[in-house]
Amino acid sequence: MSIDDFGGGQAQGADVLVVTTNDAPGFRVERVIGEVFGLTVRSRHLGSQIGAGLKSMIGGELKGLTKTLVQTRNQAMERLVDQARARGANAVLMMRFDVTDAADVGTEVCAYGTAVILARA
């Protein structure tokens, strides 16, 4: 199944649909493959930690940390999709993120969901 089969909504060339819902309208689950995840841990560099500490005293967005978290989230998603593809899935249902501190040295982001094979309903 290609991106054209999903009717758009994904990046060009994407072959794995990722949704946060329990199903994908217009499709039926043909086979459940199982849980898949993408995990990454990122440390914050000293400069962003100092900047975040100063910014937290005066308020406002912590742009350095926001940028790091976006990059980390994207990497976790890429790894999730890679794992789903490697297991033969063309979709991931019920995708979620879990974010935790990793031993006070960084941030762990895990993207997880259920890998499935979808077919047109």
From TrEMBL:
InterPro entries: UPF0145_dom_sf, UPF0145_YbjQ-like. It comes from Actinacidiphila acididurans. This is UPF0145 protein ITX44_11870. Pfam families: YbjQ_1. The lineage of its organism: Bacteria, Bacillati, Actinomycetota, Actinomycetes, Kitasatosporales. Belongs to the UPF0145 family.
